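[audit] Reproducing an earlier prediction to check determinism. Same input, same settings, fresh worker. If the tokens differ from the archived copy the diff job will pick it up downstream; this log only records the rerun itself.
[audit] input (552 residues):
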Amino acid sequence: MRDINGRNTHKAYDYVVIGSGSAGSVLAGRLSEDKDVSVLMLEAGPTDKSIFIRMPAALGFPLMDDRFNWYLHSEPEAHLDNRKIYEARGRVLGGSSSINGMNWVRGNPWDYDNWAEMGLKGWSYDDCLPYFRKAETFDKGADDYRGDQGPMHIQTCAANNPLYTAFLDAGKQAGYAHIADHNGYRQEGVHITQRNVHKGIRWSTSQAYIHTNRSRENLHVCDNALVTKIHFEGNYATRVHFTRNGKAESVDVHREVILSAGAIHSPHLLMLSGIGNAKHLAEFGIPSLVDLPAVGEGLKDHVAAPVQYSSSQNVSIAKELTPVGKLKLGALWTFFKKGLGATNFFEVGAFIRTRDEIKVPNVQFEFIPMLGEFQHGSVKLEDGFQYFFSLMRPTSTGRVWLASADPKTPPKFVFNFLSTKEDQDDAIAAVKAIRHVVSQPAWDLYRGEEVTPGAHVKTDEQILAALRQSAGTNYHPACTCRMGTDPKTSVVDAHARVHGIPNLRVVDASIMPEIVSGNLNAPIIMMAEKIADDIRARKPLPQAKAKYYVPA
């Protein structure tokens, strides 16, 4: 068997990393820095050479089919009019970091202090901030909050379309602060977005941690390798089974198996391997190795929905995306890596509180200066503008479970979006907050008719009914293999080790004990950086002592 560099692979490795996404590529890159260890990373999908991955403006295309994407759908959602919700998950080198929106958001510092208060020693904001800094090279330089020597290149967006200016000005007119760096001291307010784009190219974790280190002899990466089972001897993981190009393969493990397949597929593979709710596994004839009832439970995602407006002036980006405009865009990007092809469109945003009694933003606004459909697995661009809100800490909880003992059969999952009164109230409040912002004078020059949900939708009951028709996921599944101290309610400990299995770790969004307040890519990278030091028996980076904003 040969890796993506054409080199012969080995029969055994010290570390086998399953999944090459926001965590897996980080772990493989960092572990292979130690020249005396061998690392194999297995990715179920193809390599990431496609222009649709490398070009930031092409972000919508990998969402349209299963070429680079698991293209999953939930079970019918009872509180969303029984719709099945599409969930994009990367099935390509770089995982979801190769198909996401590239918004670089750390979450709120409170999120991590909350983790520590849940009993997870070593996961406070002071513990995590040094690893956020370690991971990045921020284009505005280093300070107490930001790093300038890390593999992930972070770029501040230009935000030079007049609709971006209107978004920022209207937000200030509505009473929100303008924040210079939402990943620094203060998250709450309106901001110019930051993105993981470098020299006009999507800077995924595979770009940052794998392609830059492909010459390492101790790092092998295999694409098109679908892991089917982890084999155990006693309570130690000793072998990983997978199929590659239709052929059954296996590899022995000397030290650790690290599962980084994401919040849907990590619990799936644990269950296939005998780790999970023993009664559930028995339904499919899978012998129980460790009875962990929390495997697959507690699924969280940021429920999201658009509020869309037509524009009274032809200034949206859609006017540049005519057939001729797309040819110009493609040529400028292909030859110079500049122009509209180098943008991810989400160049401004906001974090707000819809209730005074809470101290951490509960709603995120993402904004694009055109009417765009990115949520339900299609791409549609029209003139206008769109606010896209997400609930940051939803109380609705779902789960992941087996559909079959066949590894090729996708697991089943349900989000239970908008199943709680709190989430319903927050979603209604988010729509009202957007309408309030768009009513500000800064929008007078450009504001057309409200397209979605529509000006006729006025009462709380009407807004909620409309949201049941339009709401979906922001592609941020998490919490299905939660960190915790009690094996009855969690799956891994604070070191990401599966309870009862000393040499099996899970490192991805699934181990978040609670979902963080923002996009998940940056937090997952931070977590992987931190756990990589743990695996390497390195002393943790010194705690930071940087304060963060808490409203009075």
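[audit] rerun output stored. Observation attached for the diff report: The domain at 158-192+303-391+418-470 is CATH 3.30.410.40 (Cholesterol Oxidase; domain 2).
[audit] end
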